[in-house]
Amino acid sequence: MELAPVVEDWQQALAVVAHPDDLEWGFAAAIARWTQQGKQVVYSLLTSGEAGIDGVDPAECGPLREAEQLESSRIVGVSAVEFLGQPDGTLEYGVALRRVITAAIRRHQPEIVITNNFRDTWDGDAVLNQADHITTGRATLDAARDAANRWIFPDAGEKWGGVRQVWAAGSPDARHGVDTTATFDLGLRSLEAHRAYIDGLDQTFDPEEFLEGAARPAGTLLGTKYAARFEVFSL
To answer: 60, 68, 151, 187: which could form a disulfide with 28 (CB 3.0–4.6 Å)?
Structure first.
């Protein structure tokens, strides 16, 4: 199955993800492509990833991971990054989370909203997704519609009905892609900026090998060397 190119006739995007580093596992190269085109991309991270490193206390881990994310974002041309203070590891789908995300969408007024894969797995089979990713993606898809309804969360800013599509990065049901060949190296550097997190997981991990392992097959389906996959929802 070939991938169709995503639309790129937009200027404003908002990426809503659960943790620092979520976009860097294969999708920051796409962000770099778009910022080089002159588009504005804002990052809204629900948590600071404070529960993400087993050997580091959350009080220390949160600020450390925020700093790594700011550097990672700078590498791909994103200067607007906000951390929304939700609890890492225990995000719950519901009205409260939808309100938080709706407020971010209304605040930044994007045309495109980018979020996590929220399917149960990464491969459509056995590689399980993480609970925060699932919760974030589903709440973001709903919040993109909530933001356009003035009667839903009237305390969360003026309605914004300008979201055209929501893109779920890395979904096993992806039917669209974006060429990341020219910006692959920037995506790699942005992942490498999360050094404390990567070392906390596995000090033998090779970021370049990992990213190539996902980008090359996607590129083959798109007709390019490297690509990133997205499941596209039109509103």
So the answer is: 187
Percentage of the chain lying above the pLDDT 90 cut: 97
Count CA within 13 A, CB hemisphere, residue 215: 27
Helix then strand count (H, E) for the chain reads 7, 8
DSSP 3-state of 203: coil
The residue type at 230: F
The span from the CA of 30 to the CA of 184, in Å, is 8
H or E element, residue 233: strand 227-234
Q: Is 86 exposed, middle or buried (0-12, 13-18, 19+ CB in 10 A)?
A: buried
Q: For 87-143, give the secondary structure using H, E and C.
A: CCCCCCCCHHHHHHHHHHHHHHCCCEEEEECCCCECCCCCCECCHHHHHHHHHHHHH
- Rounded to a whole number, what is the largest CA-CA distance in the chain? 51
> Rounded distance, CA 72 to CA 21, Å?
8
pTM of the model: 0.96
Dump pLDDT digits (tens) for 4-46: 999 999 999 999 999 999 999 999 999 999 999 999 999 999 9
Structure tokens given for 109? 């007024």
Task: Say which residue, 203 or 37, is predicted with more confidence.
Answer: 37
Contact 24, 183 (CB under 8 A): no
CA pair distance 146, 199, nearest whole angstrom = 39
Q: Smallest Cα–Cα separation from 227: which of 22, 69, 4?
A: 4
